[in-house]
Each structure stands twice: as structure tokens, then as C-alpha cells.
Amino acid sequence: MPADPPIRRIAHLDMDAFFASVELLRYPQLRGLPIVIGGGRRKVDEIIREKYSDRPLSEIPVEAFPLLKDYVGRGVITTATYPARQFGVGSAMGMMKAAKLAPDALVLPVDFDEVRKYSRQFKSIIREIAPVVEDRGVDEVYIDFTEVPGGQREGGRVLARLIQKAIQQQTGLTCSIGVAPNKLIAKMASEFNKPNGISIVYQDDVRTRIWPLPVRKINGIGPKAEVKLHKLHLLTVGDIAAQEREWLVDNFGKSYGAWMHDAAWGRDDRPVVTESEPVSMSRETTFDRDLHAVRDRAELGAIFTDLCRQVAGDLQRKGYVGKTIGIKLRYDDFRIATRDQTIDHFTDDPKTIRQVAGQCLKRVQLERRLRLLGVRVGKLEKAGAAVETAANEAPAPDGADTAEARPGTLDLF
Ligand code: TTP
Ligand code: MG
Ligand code: MG
């Protein structure tokens, strides 16, 4: 008798209060306090750091950090720590409104470099344990547990615990994991025991654990669909499940109506899709001491050439060519500048990359000392498949500052 095929077990993992938790690694003295992340600029952070430059970041007194009530400016909150959420503040809320709810919460700006670093790190820790991982943005992934050793034990709890522990030990960050028969349910389940929780849902639990949830909890039912569902007096997932499929199709259209019916019954057979094609490849380095473009010209030049060689090597090894070449600098005051230029052909040649990157370097200010230098090649194609499309493709505007574009992540990335 052949053994039964393993039951499908799909996990959704989402980091807890991600941007805020990343800041807490740097400022552990703020643990347990209400903190909101927002305000965009790093100014606040820089002022504090300058004032207390005589000591490690972890010894800056709590009193030195700015309070939400003293915050001037508009802007919205990106995220809040769990203690701050008790006051009712959270993502996307205006800073002013939040200041009324939690005046004594601390405000810290986002450090995107740091966030990206930890994002890469937690994902690579997961991939070492369970290889089938789908990137769903800066702080979340789907993982196929089905064939992974331990992935079936206790419905996936054993493997989930292992992953949670590995991430915590290697980064100091916590996450929450939901394991279920499919992505749709796993995504909902990962929220059940936040923060630092694990939640196991089986197909038979849909009735008890999914049906009572408000319709918006289904990933794919947005604000517009919610309004329409409410008008039809459907408030919970169970309310949708109780409708005839045809009725949903009549009201929401053939494909959306049918999808909604399946979703409400917890049916979803989308696969976990591993790595999409890379959009860019880059190398960067932070110097041992800050360097000046003129006074340290030789040293800087050598590092620059080396970075170009490394990126070219990465491209060649992985079989990609690209046509947008860019640089990134970080000045000694932590400001960042990026420039890029799109050329008329695809390349993986270190000399070409060096030459174009050199042109980009001419377009930035070089009076201040530099902390970091990076080189990046974007608009990638597989080396064999890069057909010349220059003629019918509008080039990127010269001098345009670029943000890294990665599909499936927040706009900020
Ligand atoms: P989320 O995973 O939605 O939130 P979170 O990780 O902060 O908190 P939770 O424990 O509930 O998962 O988003 C991940 C990060 O993305 C978040 O830390 C900040 C950023 N983000 C924004 O920049 N804008 C937003 O509107 C949201 C929702 C998140
Ligand atoms: Mg999160
Ligand atoms: Mg998330």
C-alpha cells in the first residue's frame, strides 16, 4: 500500500511590529515602552546621537527620546509597538491624532537600510530551515511546510517553533506564524496569536475559527468590497459562506463572486511561489573611517572600482545583464544620495559599470566626508534573453533619484 500523500501545510510568517522592533535592537532601553515609528526623517535620531556621542546607543537615557505630544508636523504612523497599541494607535494613523491618544509615547524615525538588512536576514534564516519560501514583502513570507522534516508534526507547530526560535536567536526579533491547509487561512491565522505566537488551523476549524471573523480579514476583500458586503448585510466570513455561490456571482461578478465563495469556505489552492527574478543587484561598503572625495581620492577610487568588479561578478555568476547603473552614498551626517543612469545596452562588464557609475558620481556633492559607497545595476534581464529593446523603451530620466523597486514590497522599498 502506498503511503498517504502528506497533507498540505502552508505557513504564513509575519514579523511583530517590524520597524519598531528593529529600532529596539539598537535602543534596548526602550523595550516595553509605547513607541511609534513615523516622521520620515532621521533628524531626531541624529540630534540624540550627537548629544550622546560619548556613549553607546544603548546607554542613551530614555528621557532623551522625543515624545509624541511634542511632535510637530503632519505625517502618519508607520507602525507602533504593542504597548503603544493599547492606546489605540497604529499603522496609517495621523501623528496628530495619535498624539492625542498616546501623548507620552516615544517617536522614532524609520531606518530603511536597517529594516532591509533584517528583512533579508530573517528570510535567509527561514530558507535554511524550509526552502520553499514566497516573499510577500518586507516583513512577511509564505512557507510550504508540507515536505519539510517536522512540517507535519502537531500540524506544523514543531517546525513553526523551530523557525521562530532560530529567528529570535539570530536576530533578536520575534514573529508570529499561522499554519493552515492553504495560504488564505494561514494569512489569517498568523494574526491570531500576535505577537510572538503560533496558531495552527485545520480545514475542519474553518467553521469555528474563520467564519466569526469580519469579512475584511480575508486577504482580497478590501474596503470597497467590504462596504458592498455590509450593504447586503454580510458582516462576517460565515455570512458570505452562507450565501449561494450564484447569488455571490450575481452580486460581485463571475470571478470575484466565485472566488469569494471559495475563500469563505477556506478553499485556496494557490502554490507557494519561490523567488521571483531579481530586479537589481548591488554591492555596498561602509568604510572603516569616513573618507573624503579629494583627500582620500586614491583609496576611494580603489574601493569604487572594486565594488563595480564585485557587482559585475555577481551578475556574471548568476547570469544576468542590466542597463541601469547607479550609485549610493551615505555622508558623514547620515544623509543618503543616489543617482543612476540608463545606458542603451545590457551589460555585465566591470569597465562599463565603472565608467557609468563614475558619471553618476560626478552628479553628487562631494564636499562632505563619506561613510558608505554602493554600486547597483538594475533593469536586469537573463543574460541570454536580453534582446535589444532600447529603441522602443523610454530611458529613465537622467538624474532621477531612485528608490529600490522590489515587487511585492511596500512602495517605500
Ligand atoms: P505589518 O506587518 O502590517 O505591521 P507590523 O509588523 O508593524 O505589526 P504586526 O505585529 O501587526 O505585524 O507591516 C510591516 C511593516 O511595514 C511595519 O512595521 C511598518 C510598515 N508599514 C508601513 O510602512 N505602512 C503601513 O501602512 C503598514 C501597515 C506597515
Ligand atoms: Mg508585521
Ligand atoms: Mg506584515
Can you give a write-up of this model?
Keywords: Cytoplasm, DNA damage, DNA repair, DNA replication, DNA-binding, DNA-directed DNA polymerase, Magnesium, Metal-binding, Mutator protein, Nucleotidyltransferase, Transferase. It is found in: Cytoplasm. Its main location: cytoplasm. GO terms for molecular function: DNA-directed DNA polymerase activity. The chain is of the alpha+beta class and 413 residues long. The chain folds into three domains: 200 residues, Alpha-Beta Plaits; 54 residues, Orthogonal Bundle (DNA polymerase, domain 1); 113 residues, DNA polymerase, Y-family, little finger domain (Dna Ligase, domain 1, 2-Layer Sandwich). The chain is 34% helix and 20% strand. The chain has a five-stranded mixed sheet, sandwiched between helices. A four-stranded antiparallel sheet has the order 9-12-10-11, covered by helices on one side. A three-stranded mixed sheet has the order 3-2-4. β5 and β6 form a beta hairpin. α5 packs across α6 and α13 packs across α14. The protein starts with 9 loop residues before the first strand and ends in a 31-residue tail after the last strand. The C terminus is likely disordered. It binds thymidine-5'-triphosphate and magnesium ion (MG) (2 copies). Thymidine-5'-triphosphate binds next to β1, α1 and β3.
Keywords:
413 residues; alpha+beta; Alpha-Beta Plaits; DNA polymerase, domain 1; Dna Ligase, domain 1; 5-stranded mixed β-sheet; 4-stranded antiparallel β-sheet; 12 strands; 34% helix; binds thymidine-5'-triphosphate; binds magnesium ion
